[in-house]
Design goal:
Oligomer: single chain
Number of strands: 0
Radius of gyration: 19 Å
Number of helices: 6
Strand content: under 5%
Order of helices and strands: HHHHHH
Helix content: over 70%
Length: 160
Amino acid sequence: MFFGLPLHPLVVHAAVVCLPLAALGTILMAFWPAAARRLWPAVLFVATIALVAVPLAISSGETLAATVGENELIETHEEQGELVLPFVIVLWLAALGLSLATRFIGHRGRSAASEEAVARPRWHAGAIIVLALLALVGGVGGTVAIVLAGHSGAQAVWTK
């Protein structure tokens, strides 16, 4: 409880806001190098909040379910909520990898000036492709999973 309110709805809203925002930022970083150079600290920060908020939401939800009692709708919501965690982990890893690539290697577009300015390792392009795929899987999958979990949670609360 937090000021007399169950902690679960408060923590869930942090995850619901931060996960799609981190997904958008990470996907932008993967496909738009200019955005990556400017946004990586904020995107990594928001992705980290999402990474912390999702397990807290799961834990506080289990505590709330024990308090209010289990039923079929709550069990469905719990199952769908637990599906979000693998996606947010993948998204965070993509955000971290793209941030490190941007900060230390120089994730840049294909222009003559950038290729002369920074000698990138041969594996760099492949790593960026893998990180972009991780960003898409974690971002899109996580956003879909959290929307489905939120919908089932709303049904559990508002269905009599």
